[in-house]
Amino acid sequence: MIKIIEHKKIWFSISIIIIVIGFLFVSIRGLNIGIDFQGGTEITMNFGHEFNKADVDNIIYKYNPDAITTTANNGTELDIKATNFSTEKTNEMIKEIESTFNLSSDALVSQNEIGPSIGQQLTKGAIIALSIAVICMLIYVAIRFEFAYGISAIIALAHDALITISIYAIFNIPVNTPFIAAILTVIGYSVNDTIVIFDRIRENRKKMKGESFDSIANKSLSQTMSRSINTTLTTLTTIVAMYIFVPSIRDFAFPLIIGIVSGGCSSIFIATPVWCVIKNRKSAKKIKKA
């Protein structure tokens, strides 16, 4: 039987260290908020053929070194996102790209200015969506199992979100709307994996009456470990392939990769040990009262 619960301090410490480092970066440098929330300029250009992205990036970075570029439509289109991009500089950059690569005047597919007010609305909507998702998860798990399971699942979900934010802060990756969509997806994936383990714990509690909560949890984790690992690896393989071969969805795929790894780990090393801590404390209080 695998001993997971006995080493819970190690698992908790690893997560806390990553989160603390991430939030140190947030306090020192701040989170890199993308134009979807902060406002800025979004440009799409159609080259009509495959092109050397590095050469185009050299031109773009000359006008705005903070710009983010991604290819789309089988490598024939370029999406440019940047904050603090004046109309004059934008027009000069487009003209230079068109002249350097001999593009026609209709190469510019779209040029949009995203105002700060739209960014504020997106931020408010994202917070509401995350709050509703977390509350619904808590209610569902609490009704299906018991309140201790619900609290453990919510702590694991918070862990997944904080780990993902910490990675973004450490590597200064822009946070845009695909990040929020990915976080919501990860929450659903993570709680599903956690419920599988909790369901086995509930079954084993009936079979292992008189055993400690730690023993029941270790037994349940041993029985579901291979399933959890296989599910995580299968999902991760698909998402990594999407990240590599479909550049247009990398803003969505990258936080998914982080979240799926974190979610697979949190179900085993965070949610279940937290459940044991809660149950052991409740049991100790009952004994003291008795």
Automatic annotation (TrEMBL):
Transmembrane segments: 12-31, 125-143, 150-171, 177-198, 228-246, 252-278
Alphabetically ordered keywords of this record: Cell membrane, Membrane, Protein transport, Translocation, Transmembrane, Transmembrane helix, Transport
Membrane topology qualifier: Multi-pass membrane protein
InterPro entries cross-referenced by the UniProt entry: SecD/SecF_arch_bac, SecD/SecF_bac, SecD/SecF_CS, SecD_SecF_C, SecD_SecF_C_bact, SecF_bac
Pfam short name (any one): Sec_GG
Localization, UniProt: Cell membrane
Chain ranges of the Protein export membrane protein SecD/SecF C-terminal domain: 107-280
Function: Part of the Sec protein translocase complex. Interacts with the SecYEG preprotein conducting channel. SecDF uses the proton motive force (PMF) to complete protein translocation after the ATP-dependent function of SecA.
Subunit structure of this chain's protein: Forms a complex with SecD. Part of the essential Sec protein translocation apparatus which comprises SecA, SecYEG and auxiliary proteins SecDF. Other proteins may also be involved.
NCBIfam families, alphabetized: 2A0604s01 (TIGR00916), transloc_SecF (TIGR00966)
Family to which the UniProt record says this protein belongs: Belongs to the SecD/SecF family. SecF subfamily.
Name this protein carries in UniProt: Protein-export membrane protein SecF
Organism field: Sarcina ventriculi (Clostridium ventriculi)
